[in-house]
Amino acid sequence: MSKRITQITDVTQNQLCTGCGVCAYLEPDRFQMGDALELGRRPFVRERTVDETGKALNACPGASLMHDFDVEDPAINKELVDGWGPVLDVWEGYSTDGEIRNGGSSGGAATTLALFGLEQKGYAGILHIAAREDHAYLNETVMSKSRAEATARTGSRYAPASPCDGLDMIVQEEAPSAFIGKPCDVAAVQKARKSDPELDSKIGITIAFFCAGAPSLKGNLELLKKMGVKDPEKLKSLRYRGNGWPGMWTATYLDETGQEKSAQMTYAESWGFLQKYRQWRCYICPDHTGEFADISVGDPWYRPIEEGEPGKSLIVARTEKGRQYILEAAEAGYILLENHDASLFPRSQPNLLGTRGSVWARLLMLRLFGAAIPKYTGFKMAKFWWSYLGLNEKRSSITGTVRRIFRKRLNRRIKVERWTPPM
Fold first, then answer.
1. Who has the most CB within 10 Å: 51, 70, 277, 398?
2. Distance (Å, whole) CA 300 – CA 294
């Protein structure tokens, strides 16, 4: 029998935390986000604190996720809904701004769609993640209020991030804002706004980017060390992708003599290294494509990419609001939509249905060995275990989970220690 989750500390100590930061927004007098070296961003209980109210736990995507959309809605694609959540429309497209298109992880869709809201719909800002100015290997939550700010902060950040801890910046504005985050971040926003009318009124549009998991700070530091960056405090900038499609992992730093140097590796090589450091909750995540967002974006990997090819994005409308927003942005010339084809979605992410099925088996094993698990409602997972996975894949999902239960101590509570960068 799995452990019960009754408070946020149960979520963190049982390694179910996604690091989104929504608890710090909803209960700021109790929780403050910080870095845990081998885990990611985590909520820490303040020294002089108040009792937990339950608001944070109710919005926590690490504890539970529930789909409550109308499955009978005729606008929803019935062929995709079981495996991909609500899908109304799918396009391949890209930003018409060449700088954004080149600098983004693929076609710059997330940034340019958010800018459309900022410049044409009266939005106050864009809440998202950017590299910290004082420690380039860390992330921080920012509110971009201009094209220049948003463009400078475009591109993926494969490091711990908690954008929901900055939701107060959205609430403080008079006009609505756009929110960009990982699927779990957007899920947290959607849960929080149901019990927070003020937040609900200030969310203009939610945009999620496809996510294969969040690597830890330790993984990032180990990669820097591997690439010759001995002192991460000498790092001037760190890009994971972009400036090409998919672009290069690039670290710019000062060596022992003070000379500026650069280290590079391909996106595939860097992700191949970092993915081994993903937090546990990512291994049991049923949503890698932003099923709770108005709009989700990712890479159209349905075909080989030619060297030097300009970036393109897969753009998925998940709500009617999201669909109309995309069409308006295209009409206004912000984004170019082409290849309007729903089949692009599963063809671009061919492994995710197998991943969805594997999650079902992992949850069963975790429950059997007494580990804590999230509560998922409205996700079809078992059908993909039975129909999509081969015998070897089934065996691997079971034996791999059992090994991880003991190696990662998943059936025990762990101590979460805070890490701070050198001053």
1. 277
2. 19
Longest CA span, the chain? 65
Task: Tell me the residue type at 404.
Answer: R
- Residue-wise pLDDT tens digits, 169-206: 999 999 999 999 999 999 999 999 999 999 999 999 99
Cα–Cα distance between 116 and 198 in angstroms, integer? Answer: 23
The residues of the chain scoring below 70 in pLDDT are 1-2
Nearest to 100 by CA among 114, 81, 90: 114
Return phi, psi of residue 315, to 5°.
Answer: -120, 120
* pLDDT value of position 385: 94
**Could you tell me if 283 and 212 are in contact, meaning their C-beta atoms sit under 8 angstroms apart?**
no
Instruction: Determine the residue type at 212.
Output: A
- Output the pLDDT for position 307: 85
Token match 């929780």: residue?
31
**Measured on CA atoms in the order 190, 195, 196, 197, is the torsion positive or negative?**
positive
pLDDT tens per residue, range 75-86: 999 999 999 999
Return the number of other C-beta atoms located less than 10 Å from residue 174's C-beta: 7
Indicate the pairing of strand 139-144 with strand 89-95. Answer: unpaired
Q: What is the mean pLDDT of the chain?
A: 96
Strands 235-239 and 203-209 come out as unpaired
Instruction: Please report where in the chains the tokens 């992708």 appear, as a residue.
Output: 241
The CA distances from residue 203 to 21, 117, 206, in Å, are 17, 11, 7
